[in-house]
Amino acid sequence: MYFLLNLFSAIALLAFGVYMTKKTVISSCGASIGNVLRNVVDSKFKAVLIGLGTTMLVQSSTATSLLVSSFLKKNLLSLGIALAIMLGADLGTAIMARVLTCDLSIVSPILLTLGIFLYLGFADRVKLHLSGGIMLGLGLILLALRLIVQTTQTVTHAELTAVLLKSLTDEITFALILGMILAVICFSSLAAVLLTSLLCTTGAIEVSGALAVVIGANIGSCILEIIGALKQGISAKRVMYGNTLFKIIIGVIALCLLTPIENAEKETSFPLSEFVIWFHVVFNAVICIFMLPCVGLMSKLLYALIPERKVEYDPNTPEHLDVAAYIDPNLALGNAVREVLSLGDFLQQMFSNLGNSIAYKPQEGVSSNDMKNRIRDIAGKISEYLAGVNFDSKKQRRRMNRCLIASADVSECAHIINGMIKRLNKANSNYSASFIPEIRNELGRISSECSSAVNLAVNAFFRNGKEEKQNYIEKKNQCLKLITNFHSNYIGNTHLNAEQDMRFFMILLEILEQYRHICVIFDPLFHKGELKSQEIEMNLTED
C-alpha cells in the first residue's frame, strides 16, 4: 500500500509538471502557436512539423489535440491537416520521452531552483514569471520521473513481482492490456513506457512482452484523448478516432513483426531497457511516415463513419464559447469578443423593431421582449465562460474586463430599447392624434443615427483602433445634436393645451432621455482621457 501511495504521488507530480509546463508555455506564446496552427492550409508535411514542435513545447499531445479541435470546430483547419498535426504531436511526445529519460539528474534541481525563484519572485513581470513557470514545470517532470524510478526499484526486484509480470507478459494480449491500463492510470504514455523500461532491467519481462506493453501504452494514450474529446463535438471526435485508428493499424502490423524485432534486439548492443524507449520513438515515427499519405482517405472514412448531426438552431445558445479554447486564454478571449459581436447583431434587430414602432408598423420576427431576454442570457453565459479562463497577464485581464463591460452594456441597451418600444406602443394606441408624422419622422431619424452609433461602438470595441473610436464619437455627437434639436423644436416651443398632450410629451421626454443614455452607454469601454482628447480634437476641427 505504501508503495502504491508513493507511485501514485509521483505520477500526480508528473501530471502536474506537464500541466504547469503546458499552461505557462501557452500563456507566453499561445497566440503565436494559434497563429501558426491557423496558417497550416494544405501542407501535410508542414502540419507534421508544427504538431511536433507544438507538442515538444507544451509537453502534452492532449493540449495540442484540444487546440486542433478548437480550430477544427471553427472550420479554420481541414480534418486531413488536423490528423497530420496529431501525427506530428505523437512523434513529438515520443522524442521528448527519449530526451527526458536521459540522465538529467543535474538539470532537475537547477530548473526547480531557478524556476521557483523567477515564478514567485517576478509575479509582476510577465515574461520572467512565465519563464520561471516553464522551468518549474520541466523540473517537476524530471523529478517525478526520478521518483517513479526510485519507487518502483524496490518492488521490481521482488520475486513475487517477477512471477506476476512474467505471467502477464507471456501472453501478448495481456501485455497489450497492461500497457493500456498503465497509460490510463499514469495519464501519460511517457510514464507507462518508463515503467516498462524499468521493469525490463529486472529481467521479469521478455522482449516481446515489453514491446507489446509499449504498443498498448500508445493505444492507451489515445483512450485519454478520446475521453477528452467526448465533450468537444463531432470534429474533435473525428480527429481522435482517426489518430487512434492510425495507431491500431501500425500496432497490429508491429505485433505481427514481433519475432523479427526481437531478433533485431539481440543483434544490437542496446540493453533491453534502452531498446524499449527507442522502439517507442521508432513506432511513432513509423506511424507518422506511413500514415501521413493516408490522411485524406482517413478523412473520408471518418466523415462516413461519423456524419454530422442535424442540430436545430437555437438562437439562445452561444455560437463561439468553445470550452476547448480554455487552454489558450487569448483564443478564449477572441471567442468571447466574437460572441459580443453577435449580441450587437441582435441589438440591431431590436433597433429595427424600434423603428417599426415609431412608424406605427407591425413588429417583424422575434419580439423585442424575447430578444432582450436572449441578449441577457447570452451576456450571462459570456461572463460564466470568461470566469473559467485563467488569465496570467494584466493585458489579458484588461481585455477580459472590456469584454464583460461590452456584454453588460449591450444587455442594458437591449433592456432600454425594450422599454422604449413599450412606451411607443402606448403612445400609438392612446395618443395617436398627437403623434403627428413630423414627430415620427424625426424620431425615426434619431433612432437610425443612434443605431449607427451603437454599431460603431461595437465595431470600435472589436477593432480597438483610433479611427473606429473617432467614427463612434462623431456619430454619437450627431445623434445627441439631433436629440437636442428635437427637444427645442417639438417640446420646448410647444404650448400644451390639454392633459392628453402633456402625457404624450412626457412619454417623448422619457424616450429622448433614453436615446441620450444609449448614445453614451458604451463610453466606459474606452479610456475616458482618450475619448475626451479625441472629442476636443474634433471640436477644434469643426470650429
From TrEMBL:
Q: How does it sit in the membrane?
A: Multi-pass membrane protein
Please give one Pfam family short name.
Na_Pi_cotrans
- Enumerate the PANTHER family for this protein: PHOU DOMAIN-CONTAINING PROTEIN, SOLUTE CARRIER FAMILY 34 SODIUM PHOSPHATE , MEMBER 2-RELATED
* Superkingdom of origin: Bacteria
Q: Which protein are we looking at?
A: Phosphate:Na+ symporter
Q: Enumerate the UniProt keywords alphabetically.
A: Cell membrane, Membrane, Transmembrane, Transmembrane helix
GO biological process terms on file: sodium-dependent phosphate transport
Localization recorded for this chain is:
Cell membrane
> May I have one GO cellular component term?
plasma membrane
InterPro entries (UniProt xref):
Na/Pi_transpt (IPR003841), NaPi_cotrn-rel/YqeW-like (IPR004633), PhoU-like_sf (IPR038078)
**Entry annotated with the keyword Transmembrane:** yes
* Gene Ontology molecular-function annotations: sodium:phosphate symporter activity
What are the transmembrane regions? 76-97, 104-122, 128-149, 174-195, 207-227, 239-261, 281-303
